[in-house]
Amino acid sequence: CRLRPFSCEQGLLSRPDGSAAFLQGDTSVLAGVYGPAEAKLSKEKPDRAVLEVLLRPKVGLPGVLERSREQLLRRTCQAVLLQALHPRTAISLVLQVLSDAGSLLSCCLNAACVGLMDAGLPLSSLFCGVTCALHPDGTILLDPTARQEQ
């Protein structure tokens, strides 16, 4: 059981308030964090910031799988983001998949955490992700490739 080599870099993009790239083997994700900024009236919450998470696939439009991953990413980020410190604002986290060679969700989680830190947002703790898979023979695969995931 070994993790593929990984690396991350902060502050790659100039327009977002925070950005990060996370590479894990041949899987790579770029994260951009915008905000806190003024929220649309229809979406604002009087007691906390609203977090929007968008996961963009490498090609094509987002589908059901991306929407499901967005929800998981949003719940994870909301659990550590101190949203009450920025009431009536919006924070957007945009994750762009650059390449997917397996363990994409954990790569997205790691990119999101580093991006939130780069934006200087108040967090109660840090988080990270590692993908594990159970092989039919009962062995555990750590950080599976796309082929192993199938």
From TrEMBL:
<dbReference type="GO" id="GO:0005730">
    <property type="term" value="C:nucleolus"/>
</dbReference>
<dbReference type="InterPro" id="IPR020568">
    <property type="entry name" value="Ribosomal_Su5_D2-typ_SF"/>
</dbReference>
<dbReference type="InterPro" id="IPR027408">
    <property type="entry name" value="PNPase/RNase_PH_dom_sf"/>
</dbReference>
<dbReference type="GO" id="GO:0003723">
    <property type="term" value="F:RNA binding"/>
</dbReference>
<dbReference type="GO" id="GO:0000177">
    <property type="term" value="C:cytoplasmic exosome (RNase complex)"/>
</dbReference>
<dbReference type="GO" id="GO:0034475">
    <property type="term" value="P:U4 snRNA 3'-end processing"/>
</dbReference>
<keyword id="KW-0539">Nucleus</keyword>
<comment type="similarity">
    <text>Belongs to the RNase PH family.</text>
</comment>
<dbReference type="InterPro" id="IPR036345">
    <property type="entry name" value="ExoRNase_PH_dom2_sf"/>
</dbReference>
<dbReference type="GO" id="GO:0071028">
    <property type="term" value="P:nuclear mRNA surveillance"/>
</dbReference>
<protein>
    <submittedName>
        <fullName>EXOS5 protein</fullName>
    </submittedName>
</protein>
<dbReference type="GO" id="GO:0071051">
    <property type="term" value="P:poly(A)-dependent snoRNA 3'-end processing"/>
</dbReference>
<dbReference type="InterPro" id="IPR050080">
    <property type="entry name" value="RNase_PH"/>
</dbReference>
<keyword id="KW-0698">rRNA processing</keyword>
<dbReference type="GO" id="GO:0006364">
    <property type="term" value="P:rRNA processing"/>
</dbReference>
<dbReference type="Pfam" id="PF01138">
    <property type="entry name" value="RNase_PH"/>
</dbReference>
<dbReference type="GO" id="GO:0000176">
    <property type="term" value="C:nuclear exosome (RNase complex)"/>
</dbReference>
<dbReference type="GO" id="GO:0016075">
    <property type="term" value="P:rRNA catabolic process"/>
</dbReference>
<dbReference type="InterPro" id="IPR001247">
    <property type="entry name" value="ExoRNase_PH_dom1"/>
</dbReference>
<keyword id="KW-0271">Exosome</keyword>
<feature type="domain" description="Exoribonuclease phosphorolytic">
    <location>
        <begin position="3"/>
        <end position="122"/>
    </location>
</feature>
